[in-house]
Amino acid sequence: MKNENIIIYIMMLGTFGVLSTEMGVVGILPQIAEYFNVNITQAGLFVSLFALTIAICGIFMPLVFSKFDRKKSFILVLAIFTIFSTIGAFVTDFNIALICRIIPAIFHPIYCGLALTVAAEIVEPEKAQDAVSKVIMGVSAGMIVGVPITTFVATNFGYQYAMIWFSIVTFIALIATIIFFPSLPGKEQTYGDQVSVAKTGIFIISTLGVIFLNAGMYTSYSYISEFLNAITNIFGSELSIVLFIYGIASIAGNWIGAKLLNSNTNKTVLSFPIIFSILLLGVFTFGSMKIPTIILMALWGLLAGIGNDIAQYWMVSAAPQAPEFANGIFLSMGNVGVTIGTTIAGAVVLSMGVQYVMLAAIAVLILDLILLFIRTNRYTTEA
Q1: Where does the pLDDT of residue 5 fall: very low under 50, low under 70, confident under 90, or very high at 90 and above?
Q2: Residue 85 to residue 79: CA distance in whole angstroms
Q3: C-alpha torsion angle, residues 311, 312, 317, 321 (rounded to 10)
Q4: How far apart are alpha carbons 371 and 308 in whole angstroms?
Q5: Closest by alpha carbon to 138, among 298, 251, 243?
Q6: N or C: which terminal CB in the chain sees fewer CB atoms within 10 Å?
Q7: What letter does residue 27 receive in the DSSP assignment?
Q8: How far is the CA of 128 from the CAs of 91, 124, 125, 133, in angstroms?
């Protein structure tokens, strides 16, 4: 297909917009709490309910929509995101605002899951992995770079403008899709054949590994703005800069992670929870010191990028014969992990204090290390 580069770049923009809408609010939980006059844990529902909805819908929505024209599916999803982000900017009732988050989340897996599949379909087989990696970069950029951008907008202009920022990005992707994206007929999928891989041992243990990998990462990260405010005394534009450094480092981490996985997969996977736990222990110890914390945040971003690569590889490599299902489960179970991590962090913040989320995350990562170890040792030929 001669226009494959345009298609891939549009999907990169679309995934960036969709993931920015999901994860961008992580950096503005204090502003959300203030705007709606709720506590910080209630504000965390903007993250956890969105993630929980994706976790449920990611299991079946990509397969359900795989038989429809890809262009029409993408237009539908981007339109829904644009409309409800715009509505969310003007509502003042917290419950209605949550509804404006949940409805787009239902359609989130359709865009991301099908984008990963389409990227591999429209290029020659030898270029498929490169095409998929570009879409994943859009996902990673939305998850991580979207946070400091949203934080900057909310800090300088207010919560409402952060919601408008989300709608602008998805609207641009929507217009680009309408104008430049060709019609791509869907494919009839046999749901039973694909989901049969879910019964295999490697798929089950890999799913648990991805869940707890994400849970460990987001137990520590979901309240990072509150941590930097309360413990490190970093606020406003300074906070945006720190989160932006984190985001840039994470993009570098995506590149490094791919190289590490290609060179020594199991060593990379098993060392990740250990190295990440050491870093979190450093953040817990030196969190009240500004310069060391900023340095640790940059290293944290690097590890976050590597962690995203590991999670995606771990899930898809467990079911290479069922890519649509594996991509959907990757998104779904990743968000189960986000939900678990955010919930754990919220409970720790209320009962012990925000600094202790780092220790809670280490406990989750130790459990994940056990799950990763089981796969690398029991399924050495598949891993």
Answers
A1: confident
A2: 10
A3: 140
A4: 17
A5: 251
A6: N
A7: G
A8: 43, 6, 5, 9
Residue 68 tokens, joined: 């429809």
CB 154 within 8 A of CB 51: no
Per 3-state DSSP, the chain is made up of helix, strand and coil in percentages (nearest 5) of 85, 0, 15
**110-127 per-position pLDDT tens digit:** 999 889 888 878 888 767
Residue 218: C-alpha distances to residues 123, 211, 337, 341, 356 (Å): 34, 11, 8, 5, 13
Q: Which of 339, 357, 308 is nearest to 145 (CA)?
A: 308
Domain boundaries, the chain: 4-378
Of 47, 46, 76, nearest to 61 (Cα)?
76
pLDDT digits 0-9 by tens, 9-56 = 999 999 999 999 998 898 888 899 999 999 988 998 998 899 889 888
Predicted local distance difference test score (pLDDT) of residue 381: 44
DSSP string, 99-142: HHHHHHHHHHHHHHHHHHHHHHHSS-GGGHHHHHHHHHHHHHII
- Contact (Cβ atoms closer than 8 angstroms) between residue 272 and residue 308: no
Residue-wise pLDDT for 344-368, tens only, equals 999 999 999 999 999 999 999 999 9
Going by C-alpha positions, the residue among 109, 114, 105 that lies closest to residue 21 is 105
CATH of domain 4-378: 1.20.1250.20
* Residue 378's pLDDT band (cuts 50, 70, 90): confident
Write the CB contacts of 113 (distance below 8 Å, at least 6 apart in sequence).
Answer: 58, 61, 62, 324, 327, 328, 331
Integer-rounded Cα radius of gyration of the chain: 20
Q: How many Cα atoms are found within 13 Å in the side-chain-facing hemisphere of 334?
A: 27
Integer CA distances (angstroms), 371 to 205, 268, 277, 310, in order: 7, 15, 16, 14
